[in-house]
Amino acid sequence: MDERRDRRSGTAGVGRPRDPQVDLAILAATRELLAEDGYQKTTITAIARRANLGTAAIYRRWATRESIIEDAVFGMQDSALPVTTSNLRDDLVTWTRWFLTQVAEPATRAAIPGLLSAYHHEDGAYERLVHRSEDPARHALADRVRSEFPERSDADIVAGADVAFDFLVAATIMRGLTSGLAGADAFCTRTAGSLLLLITETRAEPHGN
Fold first, then answer.
1. CA distances from 157 to 137, 145, 195 (A)
2. Helices 154-179 and 88-104: crossing angle, nearest 10°?
3. Cα→Cα distances 145→84, 140, 152, 154, 162, Å
């Protein structure tokens, strides 16, 4: 069966059995293969073999290899964000470590370059991936900044949080993909300092500019 069929659909949907144990087995097998063999060898056939299932069981749940890998990697990131404290700098250190740890997972390090390449020519796929992996955290950071600076305008809060969040994502992805968790303590401390500066100094552009 062609593993690239109807990649626009993402998931197979119709007739999908509701057996969470099978879903979990497929996603676990996908993460294991990504970590052990890399993106290219994490095929639907290989996933089915690792999960002790037939490929039909997978296609009833996911229409493409990319959609399985996306769920296997970014579904794990649907967990709760770090708990905030009364100290913004400490929170930014915690957030940086949380993002770095997510990216440094072997399965994630294998999946991100492969998914970006696979989605390069697929309209809307990259945006969907970004929204899924970033939006909840982006909004949460804006809420944290809002609580820290209640006197600032909402436009300034969103501007500062957005710039800081973009920097946080770029820095942790680059670091996680290239170095993993090596030197994580120093990296998180330095990055948090930069984030705090961006948050405190960034202001919304005046209307008309």
1. 15, 6, 13
2. 40
3. 11, 9, 10, 10, 10
pTM of this structure: 0.80
Residue 15, both tokens:
């007739």
pLDDT in tens, the chain (209 residues): 344 433 334 545 445 445 889 999 999 999 999 999 999 999 999 999 999 999 999 999 999 999 999 999 987 555 678 889 999 999 999 999 999 999 999 999 999 999 988 888 777 777 777 777 788 899 999 999 999 999 999 999 999 999 999 999 999 999 999 999 999 999 999 999 999 999 999 988 876 55
The phi-psi region of residue 180 (left if phi > 0; otherwise alpha if psi is between -120 and 50; otherwise beta) is left
The matching CATH number, chosen from 1.10.357.10, 3.50.30.10, 3.40.50.1970, 3.30.930.10, for 76-201 is 1.10.357.10
